[in-house]
Amino acid sequence: MIYGWLPTAETPAKTPTPNTDWGQVDGDALTVATPVTLEWDNGEGLIFRRYISVDDNYMFAIRQTVRNETPEAVSLAPYG
Asked: pTM to 2 decimals?
């Protein structure tokens, strides 16, 4: 399954695509004991993060956040 963010008409910002090269900022390797955090900066003041974990039954949990470092309000639509 693919997860991501879509820009809205109110916020025509760059958002990650399926080809986005995410950087790993936390966690050495994804294991049951160690989740990983990925980050992508769109260069326009929005920082996208994905927190990925896996349990003993190989079920993945993915949580997404966006940090807005611009002075403007931002409207994005998550999908998954």
From this structure: 0.88
